[in-house]
Specification:
Length: 145
């Protein structure tokens, strides 16, 4: 049935079914894409209403609380990089410093480097030549286009 002919209920049922059929990672990507699309409305709201930056600070503290400590957990570097990337993104929303976005990209690069070192015998100075690192670098560069 064409989308323009669907009732809200028909669409709602369809989207629920399609989301349920997505893999976990595709559900994450789906959600992130929506958040990205919605973020600009949040930014307009916050500017128009002199939004209190303290709420972003509260989010930062909440993420920091759940960020794993390398002293407490031996194998937490992937989780640590994810948490640090979220913290940097929230800091970027707060202060608009582009170096924070660069930091987010380095969290990905570090994670990929860790994974390469786990799955291959590439020397640290050769990791940049690994196909996974080349793919990641291309992906990052394409994001800037």
């Amino acid at each position: 049935m064409p989308l323009r002919n669907m009732t809200y209920e028909q669409f709602d049922n369809k989207i629920k079914r399609l989301i349920a059929e997505l893999s976990y990672s595709n559900q994450i990507n789906f959600s992130l894409s929506i958040c990205k699309k919605l973020f600009f409305d949040y930014e307009v709201y916050s500017k128009a209403n002199n939004y209190n930056i303290e709420e972003i600070n509260d989010l930062l503290m909440a993420v920091e609380i759940i960020t794993p400590d390398t002293e407490d957990f031996d194998e937490c570097r992937y989780s640590l990089n994810v948490s640090c990337a979220v913290i940097e993104l929230l800091n970027f929303v707060r202060d608009k410093k582009s170096e924070r976005v660069y930091s987010v990209s380095t969290m990905l690069m570090d994670t990929v480097e860790f994974k390469i070192q786990e799955i291959s015998d590439f020397a640290p100075d050769q990791v940049g030549q690994h196909p996974l690192m080349i793919e990641t670098r291309n992906w990052l560069l394409n994001l800037t286009q």
